Amino acid sequence: MAYSTLDGTTSVYNITHHIAVPTNAYFTALTGIDLVVEGDDSETVAKKLLGLTLQARDYLFQDRSHKTRKTMEYLIAFDENWRRDFITYAARFVEASYTLGEEHILGNKDLPKLVNNSIKGSLLKAYAFDWETVNEMETSEEEW
Q1: Residue 133: per-residue pLDDT
Q2: Which of 12, 37, 107, 143 is 20 to 30 Å from the Cα of 134, by its Cα?
Q3: Is the pTM of this model over 0.90?
């Protein structure tokens, strides 16, 4: 898999899926749950974190326009504040999946309060962007 890092300790950016994935170290620091200790090897944990983070992104993007989704993907890839807010949200989504069960999270249209608060209290609540931000994304020559 192709990965690039913004800081390397809290997340990795999966270029294949255009998504920032929290590291197990960051997940453990935030939640107190070490997924490797829970019985999986580090490669399996990385795959589970990727899969659940993709589900978290799908949930976050479900009601947003295509242009808003692309702009958010760009900002998550290149802006420290957006990246931090997204990986915190993704980690909370993964935590809820582990504590409540994946079926519970995916089977309900409403997310648990802890997960929902990580959206409402962050940059991720945005539904539209100014022209300059969209133009920056559309004209970027960065690989993302």
Answers
A1: 87
A2: 12
A3: no
